[in-house]
Amino acid sequence: MNSFNRKLELSDGVETEHLRIMYYDLATHYKDMYCSYEYNRLCTIIQGEKKVTINSEHTFTYGKDQIILLKPHSTVNMEITKPTKAVVFEISNQLISEINDKVNIDIQDKNTSNQMSVITDDRINAVINRVIDTAGSKEKNKEFLIDLYAQEITYYLYKHKLFPHISKNQTTSSIQMAIDLMKEHIYEDITVNDVAYRLNMSLANFSTSFKRAIGINPNQYFTNLKLVKAQELLKYQTVTEVSYKLGYENISHFINLFRKKYGVTPKQYSMELSKRVRSN
């Protein structure tokens, strides 16, 4: 591993609706810095140990039987003193919010201000081992099983009083940011995958969260935005110009999308606009 970066993290491991699993095989003397982005992360060691400094404040070494919960937007400086195999679990905010809403746990006295917590809990370790075993298996329904285990892990973390309440406003803030990005870059060569990356989310998690909040997937939403904009542009530009301006190099594809949404081709729509102008 040459760089402990986000793209590398997302290129390996298993991802489900509620959990992203990332594996690392770290050599002795390896050093780097990484961030927890917008999610809570459970950091575990299978073999070896890590020396870490959290947010330039807390420095310690942890090993196999300890679990580190990193809060969102934490910065970690890492140093490896012996060959180490690590597994990181990124827990979706949606799952934390659902557990918060469903379970009967007193949350008034939670100590949630620390950016990290060191946890020693045999129950959590046992479930983590089941997640790792299932992720590496050929079980056809392993994503379903992993999400069940993710609920169990999150429940135990709640019992340790480690999570604050996550409101629906927090869950939807990323969706609003995504919509703003789409509108801001509607004329640029930007994809839904680019939007997800800018929000530090995987495409799968972003698409699931977006559809849950809006009702349609982000590709459909972005296409609808472009087609609404196309109606405006067709008032004074040709079909070819509008197609290229909105990033559709395949004009036939643009025409088909427009006709599917509005029942007429862009050319027919433009001609109808011209008739209305002349009649007025």
* Overall geometric form: elongated
CATH homolog superfamily of the largest domain: Regulatory protein AraC
Report the strand count. Answer: 10
Q: Please, what is the oligomeric state? A: single chain
Tally of distinct domains = 2
Q: State the separation between the terminal residues, measured CA to CA.
A: 68 Å
**In order across it, which strands form the biggest sheet?**
1-2-9-4-7-10
Corresponding CATH architecture of the largest domain:
Sandwich
How many whole angstroms does the radius of gyration measure?
24 Å
Calculate the mean pLDDT score and round it. 82
What is the CATH topology classification name of the largest domain? Jelly Rolls
**Helix-strand category:** alpha+beta
Task: Estimate the helix proportion, in percent.
Answer: 40-55%
How many DSSP H or I helices?
Answer: 11
